[in-house]
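Posting for a labmate who doesn't have an account.
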Amino acid sequence: MLRKFDFSLMAVIALSLVVMGQGGKITLTGYIIDKACSARLAKKSDPQAAAAEEPTSCALMEGCVKSGFGIFADGKYTEFDEKGWALAKAALEKTKKDKGAKFQVTGKVAGGKMSVTDIKEVE
């Protein structure tokens, strides 16, 4: 039992050092979803797969855009700040995919929101 605790503590320390070395920036890869739809998708048995099936046109509907954006990555939804909303909307408008457009989002997470610095579409 003590060994498991020691290993967990070492893993947390190592991960913290990696994050600090990057100036707190992280990169998440997943699917950009509007906040209005995120709660519904989070209830699915596999939210990540459900997010991949969401139509891009849905996220770009007026009510969805007004609700804001975030990313489903690693089975978890992370909300963006207002700058991230604008970058996300631009990325969704630019993609040629009707659904399943995957993005790499870089920024800092604090207080449950991600301050987005960059969004790129990936394959």
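Reply:
Got it, the structure tokens are right above this. The chain is about 45% helix and 30% strand.
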